[in-house]
Amino acid sequence: MKLLNLFEGHDTVSIIGMEKNVGKTTVLNAILEECRGRKQVALTSIGRDGEDTDRVTYTHKPKIYVERGTILATAKEALFGSDITREILETTNITTPMGEVIIARALTDGYVDLAGPSISTQISYVRKRMLEYGPELVVIDGALGRMGTFRGDSAVILSTGASLAPGMGEVVGKTLHRIDLLKLEKAPEKILDLYRKNSSGERIVFIGETGGVKKVELESVLEADKLIVDELEEGFDYIFIRGAVVPALIERLIKNRHKFEKLNIVAEDGIKLFIDPALRRKANLCGIKFKVCQNINLVGLTCNPVSPFGYKFDSEEFHSRLKGAVDLPVIDVVGGRR
Question: What is the phi/psi pair of residue 107, to 5°?
Fold first, then answer.
């Protein structure tokens, strides 16, 4: 099975990684290689990618290689640091630490450095602008930890690998947990409709089954768990959270479970949930369920058995265990296993 088969019929695919060094750039290069000479591609990333050396682990990273005709959206400094001849198509007025994001066309084959927009609305805008130049496929390089990762109606590929943990069983378990979160069911449509009609960008909105709505103004939900619990009142069965759903909030709700019989935490999507399996089970036992506003169209899983920290898994066993555990195509790009 080719990677292109995973997202046939979609004009956009987002690649998200469970962790750094799980082989996401290798997957990106494999997609570009499959498209070579057959399909014009547009390419961007959430934040920076494509460096020679990972800036956290200081391990070697594969470069991103594009062919002539590829459309790029990347920051000015990254674009002029790439070894391609390029045609500037437009500027976007989107700023990054590496300068304004520029949309350009590669006039030669070569290696590129990507440093794209940082939030989802910017990514959505850049995607639409790139599509105006006629590519058949937009590829977005994202990551679970980058909150701007664009999903929209795009196909999503999740990349996992040995860098998550030294034990294969732990890596498989973490991957299955994340897939489960990405596939969470949506909140009931009548509740979502109430949320859409009454929300105007607030980070926290309480909604009741009978139609009650309460908005809470916050600058960030990261340290607002006490305020959220204090504002929780009887009759509100759903808490909509715009931003990351963090363990501190769930733990405080569990400690204050006398305030509710059942409660639904509704995240924007499964990428925004940062809870481990143990905390999720504990929350479920206390009447707390997790739902989402938007589904993720997860079309495949890629796996990398090699860690940059000096150990590796048996590639055949790793691929086999993942394939037997998930209802998704599983591809080992380097090992050629499908």
Answer: -95, -10
Beta bridge partners of 161: 304
Sequence-ordered list of residues with C-beta below 8 angstroms from that of 36, at least 6 positions apart, any chain: 67
Q: Is the pLDDT of residue 269 over 60?
A: yes
What is the predicted pLDDT for the residue at 152? Answer: 61
More confident residue, 142 or 325: 325
Helix (H, G, I), strand (E, B) or coil at 329: coil
Q: Cα(6)–Cα(8) distance, rounded to whole angstroms?
A: 6
Average pLDDT over residues 60-70: 87
In sequence order, what are the beta bridge partners of 330?
A: 301
DSSP β-bridge partners for residue 215: 205
User: Across 17-31, 136-150, 165-179, which has the greatest mean pLDDT?
Assistant: 165-179
What region, left, alpha or beta, does residue 290 occupy, with left being phi > 0 and alpha being psi -120 to 50 degrees?
Answer: beta
Tokens in use for 167? 């034990």
Instruction: Let me know: does 28 contact 72? Beta carbons within 8 Å.
Output: no
Percent of the chain past pLDDT 70, that is, above it, reads: 92
Neighbouring residues of 185: CB distance < 8 A, sequence distance ≥ 6: 291, 292
DSSP 228: H
Buried b (16+ CB within 10 A) or exposed e, 157-191: bbbbbbbbeeebeebbbbbbbbbebbebeebeeeb
Mean pLDDT across the chain, nearest whole number? 90
Cα separation, 254 vs 251, in Å, equals: 5
The residue-averaged pLDDT of 301-322 equals 95
Spatial distance between the Cα atoms of 157 and 153, rounded to a whole number of angstroms: 13
> Where do the domains of the chain lie, and which CATH numbers do they carry?
3-182+296-331 (3.40.50), 189-292 (3.40.140)
Q: What is the per-residue pLDDT for 148?
A: 47
| Position 127, amino acid | R
Residue ranges of E strands in 40-126 = 41-45, 48-49, 64-66, 71-75, 86-96, 99-106, 110-112, 114-115
Rg (CA), the chain: 21
pLDDT at residue 50 above 60? no
